[in-house]
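Field reference: sequence -> structure
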Amino acid sequence: MPETIRVLVVDDESMVCAHLRTILGSAPDIEVVDEAQDGAAAVEAAVRHRPDVVLMDLRMPGVDGLTATERICAMPDAPAVVALTTFDADKYVLRALRAGAVGFLVKSTPPQDLIGLVRVAADGHTVLSEEAKRRLLAATGGEQTARERAVGLTRELTEREIEVLTCLGRGMSNAQIAARLHLSEATVKSYVSRMLVKLDCENRLQAGLLAYDAGLVPR
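Structure field:
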């Protein structure tokens, strides 16, 4: 995790931006480097400031948060994008996760939880509660195409890679996977990196969702 976590806040409501800036600014290790009110401005700000974390509202006029998420996640050394939503889970959030967002937060998240979860995102981990995960998986239950694609992709994996992917689907960290499979953390990290390429996934969260789609982890 960087010593000072640089955050870009994106929301079309200036009061929401001010609220988030106040909360995050109270943490000694977090700096809000800029605010943006639409997706186009968010992409420009991400290029200009190179933040560590982007808090991205998904529903904005003009260039929406989903499009901005796709563009920012395609950048070299892209920041961790965390989707902001008023709803606990919907198809729009799922699309943002598939576009590369590392998780999502509801706007009503308590201040201390928000600060902690921004630190989690900056440290390279998924920002997704178990309840949020459950609701998202329920929302994807009818996507036959996603299941077929996931099953096809996992056929290209080795038996060991399937084991690691299953652990990712259960939300396990590299250290937990290493202990479960009797491997070193470096070996697990290597497996995860190779799998992300094979599965055409941007991050661990996408791979974990794919494990559910493929039926490797019970819903």
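Note: The domain at 5-137 is CATH 3.40.50.2300 (Rossmann fold).
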